[in-house]
Amino acid sequence: MFSGSLSAAPRQLLAGLRMLIVMTVVLGALFPLVVWGVGQVAFRDKANGSPIERGGAVVGSSLLTSTFDGAQWFHPRPSAGEYDTLASGGTNLGPNSDKLVALIAERRAAVAKEDGVAPSDVPTDAVTASFSGLDPHISPAYARQQTARVARARGVSPERVTALVAQHTEGRQLGYLGEERVNVVDLNLALTDLAAAAK
Q: In 10 A of CB 104, how many CB atoms?
């Protein structure tokens, strides 16, 4: 019986090797190709990174934010990785971290001063980074808080900027998932288009 099991070993090894090759082809090549093909047909923009084009050139992605310096722009959430796509991630600081508490207090004071509001009125997403540090969405409350500053810096009416915020406010996904949100990248591009149209 022992010698018989030894003679079956090469056959079992060969069967296992064949199964490995078949599964590698199916799961390592065919399945990814099918998923890629479906993405290209049904979700082309999203499958390719949701690029934003202006004048025939890609100027960004609606899935990733970057820093927008200056009072004339809507600001995104803070980023632990300085909006670097190669350093995406959070700080790993927990709610009991004195460093995180101090960082949030510092951000709250800076945002309140820049937008001319009381520190207690600053929304949470204005002072806390997203998990990736690249989330392009801010809350409608944070977007509305910034309208007066942006309008003043651009020399346009606050009503016009408020209307842009309303136009770029997205509802809950599927009507009940998540919260309303504003894509700050799309909103800032709309500001650019508004300025170009005014010339």
A: 18
